[in-house]
Amino acid sequence: MPEPKEPPAAPLVVVMGVSGSGKTTVGAALAQRLRVPFADADDFHPAANIAKMSAGIPLDDDDRAPWLRAIADWLVEHSATGGVASCSALKRSYRDVLTSAAPRAVYIHLHGDRDVLAARVAGRPGHFMPAALIDSQFATLEVLQADELGAALDVAKPVDTLVDESLTILSTLATKGVTLP
After folding, report:
1. What is the CATH number of the domain that holds 136?
2. Is-annotated flag, keyword ATP-binding (predicted)?
3. DSSP class of residue 126?
4. How many structural domains is the chain composed of?
5. How, if at all, do strands 106-111 and 12-16 pair?
6. Is the pLDDT assigned to residue 132 strictly greater than 90?
7. Long-range contact list for 124-128, CB < 8 A, 24+ apart?
């Protein structure tokens, strides 16, 4: 694979996907390469959400609303300097909350085989998200639409490759005249 092109400016990126897709790992590595701050959306969940998920109960839209607003606020705070946030952003309406706050945010959707992702989730000791909820996340997931800024990447690839491909996507968008922060 050719060397990825570096984006011309520090972009604002949301690394999205279901639990176990590698959002935190890829997001943190991408932020390091871009030399911008990283935020893990798991850290923005209110205690009630964590308790609900820990009990094996899927979140509903009302549960997600304050969490999404907190992530949107973080994106706004970093819109001038750039940043990377990991966030499931499963539904278009959730992404619309983030995009309305940060219109130039680029979505990198990490997708993969359900069984592979469920095994990853099951292998995370001490995490509040149980593997039993993976099916509810797949049921909720709405893939990126043509009018949304971003691309989907298969998590079967190594992290470094996913980061390189993300950088190429960001550079390509900038080359096409998409204004990045």
Report:
1. 3.40.50.300
2. yes
3. T
4. 1
5. parallel
6. no
7. 124/20, 128/42, 128/50, 128/53, 128/54
pLDDT, tens digit (0-9, with 9 covering 90-100), for 47-82: 888 888 777 787 788 988 999 999 999 999 999 899
Distances (CA, A) of 138 to 107, 109, 173: 18, 13, 28
Give a yes or no: residue 181 inside a domain. Answer: no
Is 147 a member of any domain? Answer: yes
Q: Could you tell me if residue 130 is inside a domain?
A: yes
Residue 85: per-residue pLDDT: 98
CA proximity to 1, closest of 137, 162, 179: 162
Task: State the Cα–Cα distance between residues 70 and 93, nearest whole angstrom.
Answer: 15
CA 178 to chain CA centroid, Å, is 20
CA distances from 52 to 20, 60, 71, 129 (A): 18, 10, 19, 9
Q: Is residue 163 part of a domain?
A: yes
pTM across the whole model: 0.83
Instruction: Give the residue carrying structure tokens 């130039």.
Output: 104
With 50 as the cut, is the pLDDT of residue 94 above it?
A: yes
